[in-house]
Amino acid sequence: MKNIILENDNIIALTELNKHFPQMIDLIVIDPPYNTNIEHIGYRDSNFKDGWISFIEPRLKLGYTLLSKVGVMFIHIDENELINLTNLCYEIFGINNVNILVWKKVNNHFDQNRIHKSVNNIKSTHEYILLCYRNKKNTKLTEMKQPIYENNNWIEILTPMESILDNLGTTSSAKDEINELLGSREAFSTPKPMRLIKEMVRVSTHKYSIILDFFAGSGTTGHAVLDLNKEDGGKRKFILVTNNESDICRKVTVPRISKAIEINGYNAEFKVSAESSIDNLLLD
Ligand SMILES: C[S@@+](CC[C@H](N)C(=O)[O-])C[C@H]1O[C@@H](n2cnc3c(N)ncnc32)[C@H](O)[C@@H]1O
Questions:
Q1: For 218-231, what is each residue's pLDDT tens digit?
Q2: Which residues line ligand 1 at a C-beta cut-off of 6 Å?
């Protein structure tokens, strides 16, 4: 199997993936629209016809059935839908199978190019990540590499994943990463930093795992999988799904992964398809 990028609504893609990969995915990372009503480059974060929960629920359920016995799902979210999403995850995964993590999305070391926006009472410096286990009893997360700034130097220590994730890049540094590959900080407005996702992949997968992101946006999860494979000799494969709002898939996701492969010398190939059926993609 090659790495795959599917350009489609994720309901269609997830239904198809359930035919081919039931209980075979060790890690799902998703960063869905947060229901903020903000017009982003690439997509508008609103207009959920029957409400945000009705939008996300069937997609999470289709994701759940793809998870392997040891599988986990990391879900990014901010305070708008945190409570609704947490309750939904309690229902789907069980109350003992959900942890709530905090990601520090602002950090002076990484934010050289950040454009400061005016702040309404409180400067928002964090978001949340729900860590949902198919079954916590089956899953032993391994250690992550935590960057620490000491004596004017960055060092890395191996440590269990902590509930507050910091020094792993920010929204602004993620835009710098896209700029390095695509020549524009504004190609996509809400990317996640590659290093943050890479540590999620490190702690929850083995070298042959399949990793899925069904709100892939600029393709950070694919980039993170390839980067970790280069570091540890892994053969992990990614499946990215994104719709084609504003031509995001062809203008950002595909070129970003191609450039990442070219510039970093990753030993990887990928296929792109906008077909509903993925039978042909899996032929080789
Ligand atoms: C917040 S962004 C994800 C950003 C990503 N984590 C990154 O680092 O670039 C959410 C993405 O999901 C896509 N999306 C929204 N609804 C979708 C759907 N129903 N099916 C597939 N993709 C969808 C949007 O177009 C957008 O690109």
A1: 999 999 999 999 99
A2: 9-10, 31, 33, 42-43, 188, 190-192, 215, 217-218, 220, 241-243, 245, 248
